[in-house]
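Quick illustration for those who missed Monday's session on complexes.
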Amino acid sequence: MSYCVNCGVELAPSQRACPLCGTPVQNPRQPYDPETPKPFPSELDLFSPSDDRGYLALIATLLLALPAAICLCCDLAYTHGAGWSLLVAGAMGLLWILVVPMLLIRRGRVWWALLLDTAGVLGYLWLVERFAAPGEWYWRLAVPIVLLLFFLAAADTLLLRRVVKGRLRQTAAAVITVPLLLAGIEAAVDFYLDGQVDLFWSLLVSLPCLLLALLLLVLDRRRRFKAQMRKRLHW
Ligand SMILES: [Zn+2]
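Prediction with zinc ion bound:
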């Protein structure tokens, strides 16, 4: 059994770096072994590997297709194609996109989820605009906000997986995304309502986020500093 020299976290032989602080693991008595099970999954997966994913996908498809088909038939028969059933069918389609591809895709699940979910949400909102609430809100409000969410989520995913190491720094990086998102939403809403952008409430909310990120980075530095001092002074 190894423990992190920096923060004391228990380490598995399949870990090259501490999952908490990112310090590289070097233990001659317990060398790195990629074959042993990893203590944390590299990708979030709600289903166990032994689940029959094809079967689950089929059941989910049938469960979602049934209400959609019933509503489409009722709409055609009783309201003569008024269009409301398309909203129900669209909602079922959106649920399908959120659930079924994640059952079947094995590699790059997070990226596929981001792409498909963004496309699904945009498609569903388009149906709402077309058949329930016509207006300019779709192109001027919904599309910019959904695309902003997509790009920020993609940037965060890339940053947290490839660039930023250590839990505290990763949390700080994620917290810094919040002001960007809020400023983008306020800018889109402002532009939609008045045709010009005056950022106000998003800046107010951004301040605590920036302070929290700063605090996390300071904590990260302090812990490293303390560990360094301990090493040098042989405490
Ligand atoms: Zn550590």
